[in-house]
Write a structure and sequence with these properties.
about 100 residues; 434 Repressor (Amino-terminal Domain); 2 domains; 7 helices
Amino acid sequence: MARRLKEARLKMGLSQERLGVLAGIDEFSASARMNQYERGKHAPHYQTMMRLASVLNVSVTYFYADDDQEAELLLTFAELKPQQKKAAVEFLRQLAAEPV
């Protein structure tokens, strides 16, 4: 979670303090709290994580993905239009049904 949070913040070009403030964290503690989250020293509550995800334009599930491929899939899926999402889900169902 910590690494993905930092990567998403840097991709948006935000400072730790600015991200924290935009997510509703008090401006006097925003930088310190974000630093602790990004270093993995503390984990934000789920509600805080939802606000951070909203500011960063990513799904909150991205931060909780089990591996990097799943996280990348979530990022890509979020960028699709509704019809494309339907098609992607159908494709994945078909792919999963194929014998290996």
